[in-house]
Specification:
Distance between the termini: 43 Å
Structural class: alpha+beta
CATH class of the largest domain: Alpha Beta
Radius of gyration: 19 Å
CATH superfamily of the largest domain: Cytidine Deaminase, domain 2
Number of helices: 8
CATH topology of the largest domain: Cytidine Deaminase, domain 2
Number of domains: 2
Largest sheet: 6 strands, mixed
Helix content: 25-40%
Number of strands: 14
CATH architecture of the largest domain: 3-Layer(aba) Sandwich
Strand order of the largest sheet: 10-9-11-12-13-14
């Protein structure tokens, strides 16, 4: 179960009454890589295997499904153990980063110039029409079942220009994207020439996640940060924000959004 019911006192200008509310669950997930405890994430307690694999991919510790030797997921204890075919070396830089993460991602993530230099520019020539953007976001909003019930989660989706391919929800915006990545990796869904949608703001760490997936178009209902915009520009990603109703802001690489799209 992803939800829990709690009694509450509701107060309005008209008075007060006893009622109950549905609240989203929050649970810890510990990821163990090659018998080494790597990180503990706070997350929604669903699709933990996808979250673990997506997190490892986003952190550059896993490149493909072929590298995975074994996955053991204990949903009850909130532990996922991953064993790779080749033992991954942990660099001093990785070890120095905080290992306890909040639901929004690492507790104090810091990305240096080397993180950006490691990412190749996204060269995809895919294009999308404005009406396709609006249609995707409309479908995205209607898929947010847990958000509609609780108002307490973020959503992410991988799409082509015709519709949603993979959808996830989590209390953390980073986790929601990692769950999408993990499902794509484990079920052999290609991420090239795709579109990703997020309900959260687009900060630099979110942008770097998308760049690792080589995804050319990132759409958000919310705002980007200045570093998010700069990175999108540098890495060749089309960043679209504030998609609401029939309006949107295209911050970078606007050539991918075409007014008239030929079939």
């Amino acid at each position: 179960m992803e939800i829990e019911r709690f009694p509450l006192l509701r107060v309005t200008e008209q008075g007060r009454n006893e009622t109950e509310d549905i609240v989203t669950k929050e649970s810890p997930l510990t990821i163990i890589l090659n018998n080494r405890e790597l990180v503990t994430l706070l997350c929604s307690p669903t699709n933990l295997k996808y979250l673990a694999i997506g997190f490892l991919f986003s952190e550059g510790l896993l490149r493909s499904k072929d590298e995975i030797k074994k996955i053991i997921a204990d949903d009850r204890r909130g532990v996922v153990q991953v064993e790779t075919r080749k033992n991954k070396e942990f660099t001093g830089e990785l070890i120095s980063k905080p290992l306890i993460a909040s639901s929004g991602g690492r507790k104090a993530s810091f990305y240096s110039a080397s993180d950006i230099q490691d990412e190749a520019k996204v060269e995809s020539q895919i294009t999308i029409a404005p009406h396709e953007v609006f249609a995707l976001v409309n479908e995205f909003q209607h898929r947010s079942r847990l958000f509609k019930a609780t108002g307490g989660v973020h959503s992410a989706a991988l799409c082509d220009t015709g519709g949603i391919l993979v959808f996830s929800e989590d209390i953390g915006r980073h986790n929601a994207i990692d769950k999408v990545f993990g499902e794509c990796i484990l079920t052999d869904i290609l991420m090239d020439d795709r579109v990703i949608i997020t309900s959260g703001r687009v900060s630099s760490d979110i942008l770097l996640k998308v760049a690792k997936g080589k995804i050319p178009i990132l759409i958000s209902k919310s705002a980007p940060t200045n570093l998010g915009v700069r990175l999108a520009d540098d890495l060749g990603i089309t960043l679209i924000g504030f998609v609401r109703g029939k309006g949107m802001n295209i911050y970078t690489n606007s050539w991918r959004v075409i007014t008239q799209k030929h079939e």
